[in-house]
UniProtKB/TrEMBL annotation:
It comes from Ligilactobacillus salitolerans. Transmembrane segments: none annotated. This is Integrase. Pfam families: Arm-DNA-bind_4 (PF14657), Phage_int_SAM_3 (PF14659), Phage_integrase (PF00589). One of its GO terms (biological process) is DNA recombination.
Length: 386
């Protein structure tokens, strides 16, 4: 059995490859195959394949049997070249990193044909106990096998035949509440205002008042702060690309591009910070007035602040004042939770958060709706009394 196919390289150039059956290995009793790629034409690929067959028959390929080109790592490298052009750079980087950390150490050195359904099942079962996104790993493995099928390397996809294990619930582990109550948030912001530089307070004030994602705030430019209409326009997101490069990316989804109204106090703080930033940047040699794309939050080089920096700022406050620790994303949860508890309609909150549907909001904040459900009888009784 032989396959000759065309594929695309990373730079978009078209090349040809082949995979062919050579015979049965006299030592292992298994099939020997050969795969080669990077041929300019189909004719070149076919000629090379015929040469390999002759070399095999003459015993000249004995030392090459461990490199038939069908290792999981090799197929992954081919798949990666094409995948890069189908998704955003930040998505590509995250996906490749997930492969490197979880999948390749397990399967990278194995030939595609040797990986069984049982192998994939055991791997996913094990990861289900330690990795929250274990379901994504099944999808990752399936992608490589689908590509291998397209290339004619294998005939089936073992990842599609496994059973997804139920998420392991740790009964003895107390679920951490990743949001602040009203009083906790007020305390955090008060101490932040009193003890930390103003730009740090401003970041968390805006994060809490808007419900934005961290990357959306770090990508915000003054041209998208509307003081007259008391709102901000979310049009971009700070993302990490290859080689840890920071860049401005499109919002996460089309719903993420939105306008968020803000309270008067937050707008006053923003105006105060705009004036203070101008003074600080002038000392560093930057005229923010002449920069139409001036970032609201910038480092000393007037460039992007690292995505990890807000967590450092938060922990400084938390540890110094013995506050309860949440994640930076927890301030987004705090915003939504407080609005739901205040009786704001879920649809309004969903649009404010940039969720693709109201169901996402309801699923994420079920802890609030459950609490509200217990209050319904009392509310109904009050309505009837009045």
């Amino acid at each position: 059995m032989a396959t000759i196919k065309q594929y695309s390289k990373k730079d978009g150039a078209k090349r040809w490859m082949f995979k062919t059956y050579l015979g049965i290995n006299s030592v292992t009793g298994k099939q020997d195959t050969a795969m080669r790629r990077n041929f300019a034409t189909r004719r070149e690929a076919k000629a090379a394949m015929e040469r390999v067959k002759v070399q095999y028959q003459n015993g000249e390929l004995a030392c090459q049997q461990q490199s038939n080109g069908d290792l999981f790592q090799e197929v992954f490298d081919l798949w990666k070249e094409n995948y890069e052009y189908t998704v955003k750079e930040s998505t590509f980087v995250k996906t490749v990193e997930q492969f490197k950390v979880h999948v390749l150490p397990e399967f990278g050195h194995k030939s595609m044909s040797s990986i069984t359904v049982a192998d994939v099942q055991k791997f996913i079962n094990r990861k289900a106990k330690t990795y929250v996104k274990f379901r994504d790993l099944k999808i990752d493995i399936a992608r490589i096998f689908e590509y291998a099928i397209t290339l004619g390397i294998v005939d089936s996809n073992p990842a599609e035949k496994i059973s997804i294990p139920r998420k392991v619930e740790k009964i003895d582990k107390v679920e951490r509440k990743n949001y602040y109550s009203r009083d906790e948030l007020k305390e955090f912001l008060k101490l932040c205002y009193e003890q930390q530089p103003f730009h740090i307070f401003m970041f968390f004030q805006l994060l809490s008042a808007s419900g934005c994602r961290r990357g959306e705030i770090l990508a915000l430019e003054w041209c998208n702060v509307d003081f007259e209409n008391q709102c901000i326009h979310i049009k971009q997101n700070l993302a990490r690309g290859k080689d840890r490069r920071l860049y401005l990316d499109y919002p996460k989804t089309r719903h993420s591009k939105r306008t968020i109204s803000l309270d008067l106090e937050t707008m006053k703080y923003l105006d105060q910070w705009r004036s203070l930033q101008r003074q600080e940047m002038l000392k560093l040699g930057f005229n923010t007035l002449s920069n139409k794309n001036q970032l609201v939050f910038a480092n000393q080089n007037n460039s992007f602040i690292q995505l990890s920096k807000p967590r450092t700022w938060m922990l400084q406050n938390v540890k110094k004042n013995n506050l309860r620790e949440i994640t930076v994303h927890g301030f987004r949860h705090t915003h939504a939770t407080l609005l739901l508890e205040a009786g704001i309609a879920p649809k309004v909150i969903s649009e404010r958060l940039g969720h693709a549907s109201i169901q996402i909001t309801l699923d994420l904040y079920s802890h609030v709706t459950e609490k509200m459900e217990t209050e319904v009888p009392n509310v109904f009784a009050k309505v009837m009394r009045d």
